[in-house]
Amino acid sequence: MTVVPGSNPTPAPDALERELARLAWARAATGEPELQLVRASVDAGHRSYWRVATADGSRIVMDSPPQLEDVRPWLRMRALLESGGVRVPQVLVEDIGNGFLLLEDLGGPTLAQVIDDETADAHFDAAIEQLLRLQAIQPPLGTGEFGEALLQRDAGLFEGWFLRRHLGLELDRDDLDRLELVQRRLMDNALRQARVLTHRDFMPRNLMPMHGGPAVLDFQDCVWGPVAYDPVSLFKDAFLSWPIERVDEWLVRYHERAVKARIPVPPLGEFLRDADWLGVQRHLKILGIFSRLHYRDGKSRYLPDAPRFIRFLDEVLPRYRELVALREVLDVRIRPAMERIALPSP
User: Which residue has the higher pLDDT, 11 or 118?
Assistant: First the structure.
């Protein structure tokens, strides 16, 4: 890897200034003065990715404006995962001060773009192998924890951004008590689980199909978290839906392999319950995140998926009488509000 030193970061540039700086850096890093950048993908955060053609093949430029998103956590976690055998992008040139990285190009579509009913079993088997390697890594001191503070923040995203901002709901005291009761049960479930290194977005859109198993992307926010979190993220995805019976089969398959790999999973029945409850917690959180992306950040392509998240809740909540209070709030307040805002304007 080559290190290209940069000057001390300056105040956040406007879009044109950043575009010119990115192009100049890419040309210097590759030694190709005529090089052009083509958009490869955009994060939900502030990073962006650009594909470049060089004499040595295609490369990716990661642009992480340092005033908005520090690239160092990404680099530290990349090194940790690689040390545990997880397939991650290789860094060819780095400029931490200015937030630019030159990466290997892992290819075209993500797993989310190629997986289908016929190929899902094989793709998920390969993804499980990468996940077990990730979960076996001992996080270093200072790694963030999926604890009470993070769970409270997640609960606040759902209530603040989805219920209040998107649906315009102000719940009465009884409804708030019902919701808080379920959120407390979901949080207690997450907190009592065995801890492993947890990606928190281990799902097909963050996996790149590769020979020998998928490469893992968007890993900078890994934490010390509950063992069922990443399996449920993989199979109960924020962007893909599968029949619940098939999800259950994949969770059983993961559990069998996790036991053999000595990942600290509980007995199967308890694990399946933990996964379901974390799926509910995660889907509530993501409803809040998608709403925030729409209203605060102007990124509206995520929010139309909200009804699919409600369908997931409809499948899982009837399994557990402990979560009946959420079903009541969903049926009496949330679903009617969603139907109202879906109506065309007069």
Answer: 118
